[in-house]
């Protein structure tokens, strides 16, 4: 994407990377929040409303409703016809697909914004959506490739469950280790895909090679992001949803579902930019070489831009006032000179006479 994708500088600590992430997040909060939430939050609320209607009319099988403990809706008669239930199901599936596509575009838009901000280029959230959309198919291919590479071995390992309970537990632990390890090695692949305009497999390969020598550092970084996610999203979401459920009468649970969805989607919209900017910061920090400049300096430069511009404008105002005063003084000096010339000429005329 950029000619200067390799940002030189020193290695930042994990704390410094997160600090720089939050400084960028604060500086561009409005654009980032709109990029993450303006599209997804309304869609997720709409999906929640459709899901509520589907539960209300038995359009979803009863076992599914038991998976969500707070949905105990009293079912009213008459039930819809089979065709009506099918329409509701298809409509819900369609909205779910739209949300999935929108979520991919928003993810790409936020990564693109993070890269642009590090190069001190500002954009609107609509520009970010358009740019993110242009990477949709390569990113989708990356996700599909990840699923295939991980899915086939995990499926084969899951066969151990059918052989022996003991082997099944061991296989499950091994599967978890493999998933974590591979996920860490591929952590910065989406950023590489956008920044270097790589293909799906090339981005995965690049991330695998780049993260490998610093695996434990990246592992600790992802762990910190997971803890932040719990603190910023999971705990507040659980508390607010529990509060909504506790104050809602059982017969109004269906009406409360959109509010619960709104809480979840808004918290996610606030968290998602932090997570993806942190990924962008790590990607560039993994690539850096020792030099006079660093990512931290770039972040400081971004923060000082407004102050420098203000000082420049203030200096321009002062210079303009000074030049105006000098011009006024020059006009006065010129007028005095002309007055003196007139006086000398009058004196010469008088002497001649």
Protein topology:
Layout: H1 14-27, H2 29-37, H3 40-56, H4 62-67, H5 82-118, H6 125-133, H7 136-158, H8 160-163, H9 165-185, H10 189-195, H11 200-211, H12 215-247, H13 253-287, H14 295-352
Helix pairs in contact: 1-13, 1-14, 2-6, 2-13, 3-5, 3-13, 5-6, 5-10, 5-13, 7-9, 7-11, 10-11, 12-13
Structure description:
With 353 residues, the chain is mainly alpha-helical. The protein contains 14 helices and no strands.
List keywords for this structure.
disordered N terminus; single chain; mainly alpha; 353 residues
Rg calculated over all Cα atoms:
31 Å
Largest sheet: none
Mean pLDDT value: 77
The chain-level structural class is mainly alpha
Counting DSSP E segments of at least 2 residues, the number of strands comes to: 0
What helical percentage do the residues reach? over 70%
Run of helices and strands: HHHHHHHHHHHHHH
First-to-last CA distance: 87 Å
Task: Please count the helical segments.
Answer: 14
Shape: elongated
Question: What fraction of the residues are assigned to beta strands by DSSP?
Answer: under 5%
Low-confidence stretches: 1-8, 58-79
